[in-house]
Input
Amino acid sequence: MMRFKTLKDHVYDYLSRKIQEGSIKPGDKINELDISGELNISRTPVREALIELSASGLLISEPRKGFRVKPIDDETARNLYLIIGSLDALAAEQSLEHMEEEDFDHMEKLIQEMDEAIEKEDYDRYYQLQLSFHDVYTEKSNNEDLIEMLHTLKMRFMKQGYTDDEKLHELLSTSNEQHKSILKLMKKKDAAALSDYVKNTHWDICHSGLDVL
Output
């Protein structure tokens, strides 16, 4: 059964999305009054969401100063890749018995759209499409606790800007080729190979940029 979302949940989703997509940047302070005004709600659910975001690791709570976005250093990024890689591999493996042809078709369409976004250098669209790609099989794992853990951990990666568009183009092209390999392994129902590839190739921090999932 789907849980009913409270006002606090909506604020949590709103802020986490803005943090992840880079609208709110590492080190930025979160102004409760501004958020209340933007969403036209009272400060109470905003405050509750900020406390939860702090517990999730996205924000830092500073006494008498409020909340600010928590930066990610290299060590934290490496640790997150190790953890997310293992959990994402588990989600992919658990999804296999629930995946249907329409799911594969959806993933194929997302891959094609990602290729188009890369060619057009529409990197913001690519970013959203790749999130949707992973969500297809994550949701099909039918493991609510796993889904929630992955969602929380992935939110800690902020979308970052690149000054080197050529490097970004190469990184995203490599990442999308990996998406194609993931889909092929899923269609083959090769659980062992799929799990190994997702964990040790797709989530190998050496093979992708810090904001490329």
In short: The first strand starts at residue 29 and ends at 30. The chain has two domains: 7-69, 74-207. The radius of gyration is 18 Å. Residues 113 and 129 are 8 Å apart (CA to CA).
